[in-house]
Amino acid sequence: MKIGIFDSGIEGLLVLKELKGNINFADIIYYGDISHNPYNAKTNEEIQNYCLTIGEFFIDNRVSLIIIGCKFATKVVLETMKKRFSSIPIIGLYDKFKISEEVISGLEENSTNNYFKKKKEHPKVEYFVAGNPEQFKKLGELIMGNKMKNVYQVISY
Q1: Backbone angles phi, psi at 47, to 5 degrees
Q2: 109-154: per-residue pLDDT in tens?
Q3: Measured distance CA(144)–CA(43) in Å, rounded
Q4: Rounded Cα gap, residues 88 and 85, in angstroms
């Protein structure tokens, strides 16, 4: 199983940091859309376009769950993404302090295979960045507290 998490700023990395300790049953693809940061300075239409493009990226990479790691984007695009990508669960986070509880609850509700009970020895995290990957790594290492590996730049859209 793969989980996709995205954000335009640092909130998504805080989500990832909390989840890494609790989600040992899935690989994670993190998408940092720093080229469009901050989302709250954009129109709702722009945010929807960015998020739907990221959703397509996740679908192409066969994620089983998408987490919107941004409260602002959740408000703007959650229902649109749920309609567009109805084949997989999508969780939007309104309160970063209830992350693990929301994600595990969402997986329990949407999983017929009990993924959350299947432990992986070494879950893999890959980071895809729209923007400057070195800037992202510096910020990410401050938040995550360790060296970030598997950081790839995606072509900005």
Answers
A1: -60, -45
A2: 555 555 545 555 667 888 899 988 888 888 888 888 878 888 888 8
A3: 30
A4: 6
Place of tokens 């199983």: 1
Q: Give the SS3 label for residue 143.
A: helix
Our measurement of the distance from residue 4's CA atom to the centroid of its chain's CA atoms, rounded to an integer in Å, reads: 5
Q: How far is CA 149 from the centre of its chain?
A: 17
Q: Count CB atoms within 10 A of the CB of residue 54.
A: 26
pTM of the complete model: 0.83
Tokens, residue 23: 């989600």
Furthest-apart CA pair in the chain: how many Å? 42
Question: Helix or strand or coil: residue 107?
Answer: helix
